[in-house]
Amino acid sequence: MRRVLPSLAVTLALVMAPLQFAVLALGGIQVTLTCSDGTDIMDTTLVVDAAALTELQSVVEAMTLYPAGLVCRITQQLTGSLGGGFFAPLVAFAQGGNPTWNYAVGGGRAQLVDCFPPAETNFALSARVDPTAAVTEGQGMFNMTVPQCTVNETPFNGSHLGTKVKCLTVTVNTFTGVGRANLIAEVTHATGLFAANGPAVGATIDLQVIDSGVPGGAFDMIGMTAGGESECGGARADKAVDNGNISVHEAP
To answer: Which domain holds residue 140?
Structure first.
């Protein structure tokens, strides 16, 4: 028996090893993205692959490097269970077993506000919508902070705009990996140049973000306008994300 048991252990290890690699290849990483702007807190549970997790981590890092009053963190654990038979972990990973969302998250900076001389705007976005629900059930937050900006010869320092997402549409090109998200968000608070020049609290803005599909956020885009009459966002993403990352995901 002393010789049989070690042999059995080795055999099981050899059998399980390919399954473990197969499970990881399916991408069953459960993560919870928790975001707060100091008043609202939003938890979003996702099942992602390693590449998507890396993108989310990059977004959260950009929010820290270029603060805009929205802070997010990621907690993760592997999905699945050893119960339910020999192949149960493989099935559990494949199905996920957790809520799946259409989402757009982003952080970084871009020239979103007309300043003279030109100045960067820090931005942070976390938005989601149930793919089976109406786009007007979108949830989340979009914030902007301009550290320094001069408008009409008036200098402003630390201007901030906070909004609450009211509508979200998401599309991802399965061939190119390019993702687009259109949003409508209602202004909840404004200071500095935003208080002086609008949009006013209660007004809406249209926002569009583009995830280029290139790792690290290269060629990501963002753009915003005053709220219009479109169903869910009429802005065009015409500003390059100079530093940071945007991640857009469409549920399968």
So the answer is: 29-249
